[in-house]
Amino acid sequence: MVRNPLGLLAGGGDVPLRVAQAARAAGRPVAVVALAGWSDQDWQDVPVLRERVGAAGSILGFLREHGCRQIVLTGRAQRPGFLSLRPDAVGARLLAKIGRAYFAGDDGLLRAVARVLEEEGFEILPAQSLLRDILPQAGLLTAAGPDEAARADIARAVAVVRALGAVDVGQGAVVQQGLVLGVEAIEGTDALLARCAGLRREGPGGVLVKLVKPGQDRRLDLPTLGPETVRGAVAAGLAGIAFEAGGTILVDRAATVAAAEAAGLFLLALRPEEFEERTP
């Protein structure tokens, strides 16, 4: 078993903490780069560098100093504006290698970042390689399930999200009664749900669908759901949430399912190919 320290580039949320805990439970040391403006965890008993994303020289130096050859990029984050990066000398060199990919979609940018990190001698590991139970397989996770109207909305949303993903825009959409209330772009799922709360129609609630982008690098930025997503779905008046089986990170499964059960929402891990676009 590999015992070299694991490097963790941590954004916000619980997943980075869980990755660190899993690595340490397996006897592997962890060194954490807590990315400023994103990482909101209380890191204890591990070496931590709190640094802005543009300070690549400091970040890479810290990882090398601690003997990290493998790294995990995980946690909630939003792409910084180009002018706000303020790269150091190493950051400027790496940014030149990333090139126009900085202005591509998230998957295109993250692929370029991963390639550059690999050229610097690091191996990128997916969070799910340490958290093997974090990607639910196909099936219904709640007592409530989608009715025919909800299944039709899911099929519509699958088609929409696949189209979005094909051009590297987003991973989610909200559909109610066949109407697309909103699609996810740079704002993220929580903001999408908040926006859709004011757009809901009378009658049966809609659905949120989250999918992996076609051809997406599954080491990076998988769709993620958790208790906060359920709370946003409740506030938006949705009937349930459907997400790609084996490709969506479910943060704190017990708490997420419990929140959905309490609200009467369904949680469905699906295979997108089983839902075809339906026409009236």
TrEMBL record:
InterPro entries attached to this UniProt entry: LpxI, LpxI_C, LpxI_C_sf, LpxI_N
LpxI C-terminal domain boundaries: 138-267
Matching Pfam families: LpxI_C, LpxI_N
Domain LpxI N-terminal: residue ranges: 6-133
Highest taxon above the source species: Bacteria
Gene3D superfamilies assigned: 3.40.140.80, 3.40.50.20
Protein name in the entry: UDP-2,3-diacylglucosamine pyrophosphatase
Organism listed in the record: Paracraurococcus ruber
Lineage start: Bacteria, Pseudomonadati, Pseudomonadota, Alphaproteobacteria, Acetobacterales
